[in-house]
Amino acid sequence: MTEPIRVLVADDQALLRGSFRALIETAPDLTVVGEAATGAEAVELVHALRPDVVLMDVRMPHQDGIEATRRICQDADNATVRVLMLTMFDLDVHVFSALRAGAAGFLLKDTPPAELLNAIRVVAAGEALLAPTVARRLIAEFARSPQSTRPLPRALDGVTDRERQVLTLVARGLSNTEIAEHLHLSLATVKTYIGRLLTKLQARDRAQLVIIAYESGLVTPAP
After folding, report:
1. Locate the HTH luxR-type domain: which residues (predicted)?
2. Is the pLDDT of residue 149 over 50?
3. If you average pLDDT over residues 44-60, what whole number do you get?
4. 28-32, 138-142, 192-196, 214-218: which has the highest mean pLDDT?
5. Are 21 and 9 in contact (CB under 8 A)?
6. Which of 16, 51, 108, 219 is deepest in the core (most CB within 10 A)?
7. Second CATH level (architecture) for the domain 150-215
8. What is the overall mean pLDDT for the chain?
9. Are 223 and 184 contacting, i.e. CB atoms less than 8 angstroms apart?
């Protein structure tokens, strides 16, 4: 029997933590291994418990979720830990920072229960939760930030033309299946291209590929 996906819930509101725990525990393939009320506590519990997925609130006292995510993702011992950010706001100004910090994606706190459970499974499987609506929020945030505050462009040296095509579609929020259909490729081939992109660009996951696509100038926000 496959071991359940181990989830750590990090939120400063006890009621929400309890609600998330109760929901997650209804799924036989998921289990909550711990709860954190601050970002600092989340970092400590990740080290102690080694969860598969951290459900991380953006706004928390004593180290916010973004800084906690950065610390978790920069630790080589946490290479298999995925962070799924939660926010109350549809256009949270921290979305771009959260993904750059290493988050595998983000959800709104009013996401339907079934979608939240599926998101945990998707992230645990190594994918990133970047539906087109998520990508649009990311694009909007990038477009709003002053040019002077954006990161320096990242080079795409060694990336082939076909890989650039795949990277562009990833940045637009397309799934592997949609990319395969768009480029008339097999799903296995698309997965191979994405694997090569992750290696060549030293990206942790699909979310960071989206960031790189914008930082490199390969994809630009629509006016």
Report:
1. 152-217
2. no
3. 93
4. 28-32
5. yes
6. 51
7. Orthogonal Bundle (1.10)
8. 83
9. no
> 117: how many CB neighbours lie within 10 A of its CB?
19
Cα-only R_g, the chain: 17
Residue position matching structure tokens 């060549």: 200
CA distance 103 to 206: 10
Domain residue limits, the chain: 5-129, 150-215
pLDDT number for residue 101: 78
Contact 160, 169 (CB under 8 A): no
Rounded Cα–Cα distance for residues 15 and 21 (Å):
10
Residue 63 has pLDDT above 50, yes or no: yes
CA–CA distance from 138 to each of 82, 153, 184, 191, 207 (Å)?
Answer: 19, 17, 27, 23, 10
The distance of Cα 24 from the centroid of its chain, to the nearest Å, equals: 19
d(CA 124, CA 14): 24
Return the pLDDT at 217.
80
Convert the pLDDT of each residue in 174-214 to its tens digit.
778 889 999 999 989 998 999 899 888 888 777 778 878 87
Token match 């920069």: residue?
74
**What's the rounded Cα separation, in Å, for the pair 120 and 124?**
6
Tell me the whole-structure pTM to 2 decimals: 0.71
CATH fold, domain 5-129, is: Rossmann fold (3.40.50)
Dump strand ranges (E) for the chain.
5-10, 30-36, 53-57, 82-87, 105-108
135: phi then psi, degrees, rounded to nearest 5: -60, -40
- What mean pLDDT do residues 133-156 have? 57
